[in-house]
Predict the structure.
Amino acid sequence: MLRSKDILGIRDLSSEEIIHILETAKDMKERIENKKIREKSLKNFSVVTLFYENSTRTKMSFALAGEYLGADVSDLGVATSSVNKGESLVDTGITLDQMGIDIMVIRHSMSGAANVLARNVKASVINAGDGVNEHPTQALLDLYTMYEKKKSFKDLKVAIIGDIIHSRVARSNVFGLTKLGANVVVGGPSTLISKNMECLGAKVTTDIKEALKDADIVMGLRIQLERQKGGLFPDLREYRDLFGIDEEMLKYAKPDALLMHPGPVNRGIELSTEIIDGPQSVINEQVKNGVAVRMALLHLLAEGRKNNEDIDSEWTYTRPYIQNRWNQRCIG
Amino acid sequence: MKILIQNGRILDPISKTDGIKDVLVENGVITAIEEKITASADQIIDAKGCWVTPGLIDVHVHLREPGYEYKETIKTGSRAAAKGGFTTICCMPNTNPVIDNEILVEYIKMKAEREAIVNVLPIGSITKGQKGEELSNIGKMAQAGICAISEDGKSVMNAGLLKKAMKYANMFNLPVLSHCEDNTLVGGGVMNAGEMAERVGMKGIGADSEEVIVARDIILARNTGARLHICHISTSGSVQLVREAKLRGENVSAEVCPHHFSLTDEAVEGYDANTKMNPPLRSAKDVESLKEGLKDNTIEIIATDHAPHHIDEKNCEYDRAAFGIVGLETALPLGITHLVEDNILTPMELIEKMSTNPAKLLGIDKGSIQVGKIADITIIDPNEEYEIDVNTFASKSKNSPFHGHRVKGKVKYTIVNGKIVLNDGELI
Ligand SMILES: [Zn+2]
Ligand SMILES: [Zn+2]
């Protein structure tokens, strides 16, 4: 059981909840692989995806997860809807709520956007990435991939390399991994990494070799060219030479280390093609696990909603904003 | 109209009076302050257990008129001020249009005369349209009655232009109220840079963006002889810069806002945009320094930076939300709760920073409760405890992070020019 009606970030989940989600995902993965056991546990549930920032991959993953469970999944084409005409996030949410949507999946360029939506609607909200804050479903699929291969997180060394400061994936992984007992080292150029990351429990270094040394998991992150234009590093050639990972660099990690990347990869920049397609890479596996994890989340949220349907329980969050809003309207 | 205030604790920072006395107000002027006054009066106020203080003065308020009347107007802002115990407020020029010429100053004064229930003093912008390119009509605005100049909302980034403005303003004896923020260092930040920003995944505003300009403006003021006042000081480093300037004997003053000494950036955790302000809520260490600065008088003024915003500008994504919170109605209780109750300031020092020192900065004959003075008086019950409820605010906007906070200290009466505008906690 999940404590909240929403999945807003790994920061809010307990380690028990995370493990429960991963165990549920294991069952879901079997359902993906074997059509005969697909169970329509989300029949009559409506899911809508609201992507204020494009990501075909994540959106597709959610849509398939919903469909495999029998839910009705629709997409609010943000680019073509009233949102584009300036409707606020809160108004969009309230409108969808009135239409009886059970679960809203939101991707947004601003941190905390999912939180704002969640406290203004009755529906369950899943954060599919908000600003530089969190990307909990990506982190959960990463965690699932590690869990499947390594069986336990205890004393696992995870090295995350690249543009840490702008990476919600890195942040969600740090929250999750440290909760589960793993050691996380984040590495990258000093302008793409923050010392404050240490307060989240990760070790911070600009020395990539040190980060990779004896790692059980090596995770590369995507570099965005606009960061270079923003003056955060000189150019891609220098980045590749100093911070890119190739076969030589990967040797610093344990021989059985897993190579991961949230995708899409810039081949030859953050990771060399040889290792992307090499035996240690589980990058393709991550994609499949993504659907399984999202099925697990939809399943667990729906279960919670069924259980809480008629009871005015704690679980259905109080919504201070809505109350405020009405109060304020009344006194004019 | 005769008002007799009985048995209150008089707090007058100028004459250092602190004792139980009666006060008589006749035709807008204080005519007697004595142990026992037996004169008849139109209204007798029993101030037993209360402080009777010079009317509070806020040098930093945003009234939003003209241009943003849906957030606040001169009328509603003045009512909020009266509820908060303020008898004089200075309004910042970042309206639409910007207050950059005498016609707009006249407009504010005329509106205030008609609709405001407290004294309203306009502040003129430093540059035309606050664009940072050409000087505003500072001289003409001075003639029309501005009390200071400020580019509040941003810094004049061109140091050469600011230096000219300082020299020019000197001719008219106008203080320069400086909003210290280097926009090349802010980089799209929305909250204090530090551990909490890391935790919630938001872009931080470092202390350096404030301190660089504090240092620059102190240097420019030294060279021009300008009367520099640093607005809403928020970092440990800024406090130190002002402290050092004062030790060198420079003509610099600083204000702190109640939210900056009452809250830390921990408050941002739930992404409630009512915690979004500029400068942002800082770390516990900064708050400690601000309190030290208040204690050793490095910071001699408490100002609210009352910044009303509509609910739609706050109930949204944090990045998108407007900066600023309302402050007029919470300033005094926050001061009592976090400064007096915690023994940072005595009641007299608190009143000095909320009335006497602001009057000195503005060069106006207020901030003192003495015979012969205009009767701007605030009566405060320092012991009343309650929960702040934004729904009771007189301000048009309710954007406060203090909703539900327990505080001590309530304004009971506000008297402006001898007229009661807040009567036993109720606006008239
Ligand atoms: Zn300001
Ligand atoms: Zn301001």
User: Anything to note?
Assistant: The CA atoms of residues 72 and 301 of chain A lie 15 Å apart. Residues B 152-153, 179, 231-232 surround zinc ion (ligand 1) (CB under 6 Å). The first helix of chain A runs from residue 15 to 33. Chain A touches chain B at residues 11, 88-90, 108, 110-113, 115-116, 120, 130-134, 168, 171, 194, 196-197, 199-200, 320-321, 324-325, 327-328, 331 (CB under 8 Å).
